[in-house]
Amino acid sequence: MFKKISALVLAGAMALSLAACGAEDKVTPPGGNNAGTSASGTSSASGSGELTGLTEAFAEAPVLLTTGGQSADYQMVGTLMKNLGMDYTMDNKATSAELGDAKTLIVVVGGSSKGLGAAGIDADGELARVDELIKGAEDAGLSIIVMHTGGSARRGDLSDKFITPIFEKADYAVVVKSGDEDGLMAGVCASNSIPVDMIDAISDVATVLPKAFK
What we know:
By secondary structure, the protein is α/β, with parallel strands linked by helices.
C-alpha cells in the first residue's frame, strides 16, 4: 500500500514540476530503437560493449545529491531517498567544497531553462559546476551515481547537453526507459562499461537504488 501511495504522490509531483518548467523544456527525443533493459536484464546497445545491470553493492552513505541541469527531477529523487531513510544532503549548487564527509555523489540529469534561471546560472556554467564537482568527487574517492528520471519530457537540446559528459563519469546509472528511446544513455553506459538499470518509472528508483549501497 505504501509503495502505491508513494508512486501516486511522485507521479503527481512530476506532473506539477513539468508544468512548472514550461513548454520549452518538454521536447520529445528523436526516434530510434529502445536499447533499454529491465532492471535485471541485459541487451546490446549502440557503441562498443554490452549493457549490463548492477550486480553488487558498491556505494556507501552519506550521500550528496545534486542536479545536472537544474530540473526538479533531483528533488523527486530526494523525496524517494527520504522515504527510504537514506542518509543524504541535497544541494542544487554544490561544488567540490560541499562534498564534506560524503562517500557517494548522486547527480540527477535534466535541463530546465526556468531552473537554470532561478539558480542564476546558464547551461555552460552549470556544466562547469558539475564537472568541477565530479572531479572533486573522483579525487576524493567517492562513488558516483548518475540518473535520468524525467522520461521523454526531459530530453531535447538543453537536457542532452548534460547527458554524455555527466553519464560517462558514472560508476552506476539509473534511467527511466522512456527517456532513452534513441539509446543515447544506453550507448554511453555500454561504451564505458557502466552498469545501468533501466526502469519504468521514477518510483522504481526506490527499488534499484538501495541495492547499490553496502
